[in-house]
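To: structure desk
From: M.T.
Subject: fold request, one chain
Message: Could you run this one when you get a chance? Sequence is below, nothing fancy, just the single chain.
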Amino acid sequence: MNRSSFLLVNITRRPFFVVFSLNVISFFIVIFFSSGALTDYWNILLSLNSLALYNLIAGSIFMILSIRHRPIERYGLALMAVFVLLLLYRIGSTVVYTQFIRH
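Reply: Done. Structure tokens follow.
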């Protein structure tokens, strides 16, 4: 097995590293969109910013819990799933508002 596939298998077996990677990506998305770039054009990007922000919050909670208690990982993943569902609702309501109600 070569080095890159070994790294990929290791990352996918450990949810902590997956969440950490998502947190890093989310942090840069929040910083980029909070600077005002592109947010005047698409409301979907505002929802993407919110998704990144919620993911950052949930991921941080998950990482703190998983450092202290290893078996808590599945609860952290469940918490992140709840945040993702909330964000899907927010994106859907944003699309409905911009497409149907505002016109």
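Reply (cont.): The first helix runs from residue 3 to 13. Let me know if you need anything else for the meeting.
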